[in-house]
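Hi W.,

Here's what went into the run:
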Amino acid sequence: MVAAVEPAGPRPRPVTPARVGLYAFLVITALFFLTPLYVMLVTSFKTMPEIRQGNLLGLPAEPSLQAWGHAWSAACTGLACNGISVGFFNSVKILVPSVIVSIAVGSLTGYALSFWRVRGASALFGALMIVAFVPYQIFIYPLVRIFATIGINNSIPGIVAIHTIFGLPTMTLLFRNYFASLPIELFKAARVDGAGFFRIYSSVMMPMATPMLIVAVILQVTGIWNDFILGLVFAGRENLPMTVQLNNIVNSTQGERLYNVDMAATLLTALVPLVVYFASGRWFVRGIAAGAVKG
Amino acid sequence: MSTRDQRCEVSVRGVDIGFGRVKVLEKLNLDIAQSEFIVLLGPSGCGKSTLLNAIAGLLDVNDGQIWIGGRNVTWEEPKDRGIAMVFQSYALYPRMTVRGNMSFGLRVAGMPAAEIQKRVTEAAAMLKITNLLDRRPSELSGGQRQRVAIGRALVRDAGVFLFDEPLSNLDAQLRVELRVEIKRLHQRLSATMIYVTHDQIEALTLADRIAVMQGGVIQQLDTPQKVYREPINRFVASFVGSPSMNFVPGRIEGANGVLAFVGGDLTIPLQGYAFRSPAAPGPAVLGVRPEHVLAGGAAGPAAIQAPIEMIEPMGADSLVWCRMPSGASFSVRVDGEARVAPGGTLPVSFPATALSLFDDGPGERL
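Here's what came out:
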């Protein structure tokens, strides 16, 4: 037996094989995910002659932004050769109204479902949740037909409506659970004060929902930005989002494949969600935790 | 604040409320006079908050009517009923300042800014929260928050104030302080107040009349003195009063018109007890409050010697736990200075005028 040591101060934390194994696993996993990102970054700064030498992991000998410039403004996305910037601005045009409208509609639905005990509210909520699990490819063809009939197919309003509809279950769930965690007396007090449906929503409830609002913005921005199929089908030829343009750049290459341009275009496309995550990761965790603990 | 010209009596007429198959209130009637302070007292789940919410219009009634100020408001929105309400959890709007909280209702009603300013200033002065007006609720203590909540009710200048356990979240000292404040407010405003609580001390100190509720039924509706001295049944007797009433099972026995209560070796003559109905011999339960037991020198010649088990000193007086000859414990309130000790005996007697007798079945007062 080990000689008895009088326990005092912090408990000793011995290095055990299990702990070493754990850290090794974590490091390997991190490398597994970081290596492709690293290869993309270095390749995008290399020139084509250097890439042809085949040293995949090496740092660029003479770093150049030429590939990034080409990807942004001159790469061919089919017949037109205006770079991926066209797609970027299309995506922004789709993103901004979609995020605003989907969050507005989702939070309003969540608020109505949690405070205004309408007959059949829980049935409606259940239906919303079940439909959220139906693969959305099933809806695409019917929706195309409907949108074509009412004349908003292949347009910005069309794609905004699509993102609002498909975002509704998640947004509703998010806000309903958050509002359900607030004391009901707050709602009663506002009613005694004479505020109506929209006044309570805008003056009392939404100002309290800031953490959820941030989570919702993150979810919707990344989700809508990364969307491919819906943008391809519903946005129309003029408004194809960045993801679709990226695909076109990579697939419509004639002759030599410009790896550095492809990599740069990909990184440019990934930049928005990346920035959103880095800028708001703290808020994201806080919002999720707030909802989880109280909901 | 201003002298009131609107009528503000409240009348609950045959109200039924249920959630699904559970009936909370059935055919409940309650008439509250102008400027009266009514306390709805009862254990949790007795329907008192449900009743208050129904009066406020926050809950639909399944049947019956609610009248406020001579108007049938059964189908009206809370804001149109001329009421103001204070909640247990304060329910302050967290993202508004104190001023914003107090003025929210007036702003919703579209009142001119000058009038809002005037009312908020007045209410804040009355509640001594003027220096807090620009703070957020999160920067206030519990007591301050509840003052703000009362202030928010005050600015509405309503004829009827509804309080839903407003002091239950506060610590003991603040509770006493705000209790006095609420009573003072009632005298000053002469508004009708309906106050829900499970704290019988609050009920006794504040109310003009107490409605003791259990199982959705008002058991007794009377002045605090009456409820305390002459509880209508065993539930009311045991719920009101702290330390609580002693109960002794036994029988009423009578010979040639002279009745006495007999429990174990204890015999108490009942001359002077006001029976509600002609008395008859039979099983009964005796109820006596600790302070109504005469002890020591006051006990008189007919006193019995009760062995002392335990003493709870409470400052001004002490609660002495004695053992009945039959074996049951009962408590006696004696002066805090009285020299008593466990192991000794205390001479006690039970004056018939301060006793309560209940039947041994449903526990109705005899």
